[in-house]
Design brief:
The chain has 4 helices and no strands. The protein is elongated, with a radius of gyration of 15 Å. It is mainly alpha-helical. The longest helix has 16 residues.
Length: 76
């Protein structure tokens, strides 16, 4: 039986590259909440479509915001 060739999934555009954001501020809670799940977990690079460099900066900003009690570690 022949298998159909699968198309590779289309890559999402990086939010930070598209909007020309150079610095991800940990105090910008509204922006950070877009990249956190409803359970409080940081969404993966594949889900958000960010570049690896921006994903690292994003995760550091989210962790700083959690440390400063701006974002919860988890939400129940």
């Amino acid at each position: 039986m022949a298998t159909r060739p699968t198309k590779p999934p289309k890559r999402k555009d990086c939010y930070f590259c598209k909007n020309k954001i150079d610095y991800i501020d940990y105090k910008d809670v509204a922006l950070l909440k877009k990249f956190v799940s409803d359970r409080g977990k940081i969404r993966s690079l594949r889900v958000t479509g960010t570049t690896p460099q921006h994903q690292k900066l994003l995760s550091q900003a989210i962790k700083n915001a959690r440390e400063m009690a701006l974002l919860p570690y988890s939400s129940r």
